[in-house]
Amino acid sequence: MTRLRNDDSGQIHTIEGIVSALVVLLALTYIIGSITFVSPQTEKTTVMKLSVKAQDIMNVLSVQDRPGNFTSPLTRDIAEWDGGAASPTQEVNAGEPSIIALNARIRSLLPGKIMYNMNVSYIDEAASAAAGRLIFNDTYIIFQGDPQENSVMASKIVVLNSYDINGSANYWSGISMTAPKTVEVKLVLWSI
Amino acid sequence: MIPAFRRSDDGNINIDFLVGLLVFILAFSYVMTAIPGLFIPYQSTSIDLGSVVYRTSSILVEDPGWFIDEDSGISFSNWEQGNNRNHVARVGLAIDKRSPNVLSMDKIRAMQELPYITARDKMGLNNTAVYNFSLTLKKVGSDSPLLYFSDEYHTSFVESIDRVVHIREGQGILINAPDYAGQTNNISGPQSFGVIYYNPSLSGNVSVRIQGLDLTGIPTESLEPVNVSFYFSDAHQMWSDFNLVANYSNHEYYIYKDGEYVTDIQSEEYDASSVIDIVVDTDRIYSTYFNPIMNLSTIRVNTISTTSCFPNQSIYYNMTSPLYRYFDTDGIMTLRVWQV
Known about the structure:
The complex is a heterodimer of chains A (192) and B (340). Chain A is 37% helix and 19% strand. Chain A is an alpha+beta fold and 192 residues long. Chain A has one domain. The termini of chain A are far apart. Chain B has helices at residues 15-34, 46-62, 105-112, 116-122, 282-289, and strands at 65-68, 75-76, 88-91, 102-104, 131-139, 147-149, 159-176, 192-197, 205-211, 221-222, 226-233, 239-245, 253-257, 260-261, 269-270, 276-281, 295-304, 314-317, 324-339.
């Protein structure tokens, strides 16, 4: 085994060492300071904005627009809905004037590059009674396609009471003062 | 003779040093990636701004704001009224805390009157970090902003957010003239029409919107004096004889035709598509004519015209009538924020 060399050959000179370390540090600082980080948070901000938008729209649709009256435009539109589903060929069922108006209002609140679907979900009493377990009916009332990546969802619970229903020949049969109907309305947004 | 390469080994970097430097860089980059936030001062500000713009938009859209009452030290949310705006602690445009996204037109108007620096302060953008902002609030389908603040920005690090809002302009009655066609007139005067409120708790602006004038055979209609009168009742809620005719030039009520303020009501003409808004400032009426014995309980709006294009009867309303409603519009608020 050899002893450690006692001369100064093969050593970096002190000043050069410090200078080169400083150069490395300066380069690192410069790089960190100048590049824009596309971190996971950047994408989160985009999704956050879309999600805020979905919630805003549901809030705006659910505003009580008459003093002393607990209904909102959304409740009235869902109460007037006659069971017609949207489909890939029909963005909104042509036989549903209230949903056509609702769709026009949502469209007016969104920039063109955002697409959306809306569906309603409620317990199907007849099917549940026949099957002996709870069966949910989930129907698209506005359909613009299958959501893409990073889609967001906002929902509101709409309670339909007998005074919301006009006429007896309505889709929502069997609603009485003691048995209101609970419907979940979901709005899904995505950017294209 | 100088050799091509020095044979001596001075000035070379030791392998130990290289290894040491490598370990240092590895450790440095590990620390840099493993501790989020350590190098934020060196990063671009876009990550930080995302939360600032969201927070600020929520303050405006979801909160009514507040001011601190000078005498009691208690805070209230009606900062937009009168002298309160000099003591505003935080601005907010929502009508109340339970109604996110529903904005008060009075608060919007009050905020527009604030200087830029005050508005920035009261939005919480002037703390340890100072941000500048630009703010636009427009009705859907309209180009003229209801609320507009702008400051020049010279940086590409700007974060913006759009909020969908519902603007509450006032409350009142919507009268579609054809709904009342052929009904008998029980207001005195030539072809007059009246609206009567029974609402002791009335406050703020109350509007009567009249549309769908029946102008069959009449090209235009000149609306002769709109006569807005106020009836007071005594403590027993009996009708009093005291009848006050409001003064238009005193701004006790306003008339808008298709959204435009009408300065000279005598010369204005209306047609079948006209939308007429009669806006009564009940607060001003109350403060001007307040009488401790009498309660303001009724407002009667009479429109007297030479022909019968207006509804021919008086219509009674109260709070529970479904025709009594809010005048609302949807809007979009755009907020941009950047660091000074």
